[in-house]
């Protein structure tokens, strides 16, 4: 469903799972986190909150290729897919305050059905995607 993003924009998609997971994110027009599962090793909770509100975020970069770490500023749109909303667990229990801080930064679309595999041959369409987003912008 979000593949049209890759046709329309310069997209940073799914960070790697290593120390330099976010290299090239600073060049992206859009960030697309497909099947996203938050982990502290990937990005700190605080940095993810900052990323989603357009705050300044520092990302590690290999010094063999970069003179300094990467800095992302501005309001780069972030799209993500996931089975569940993100929750913050502290001392074995859900931290309601942190979880609420995260949830207010997302606009969620909950899909109730799946397109049968035989019908999943739709080409990415920028026009159709834009209509989907615009029609669902009402709060």
Automatic annotation (TrEMBL):
<protein>
    <submittedName>
        <fullName>Uncharacterized protein</fullName>
    </submittedName>
</protein>
<dbReference type="InterPro" id="IPR027417">
    <property type="entry name" value="P-loop_NTPase"/>
</dbReference>
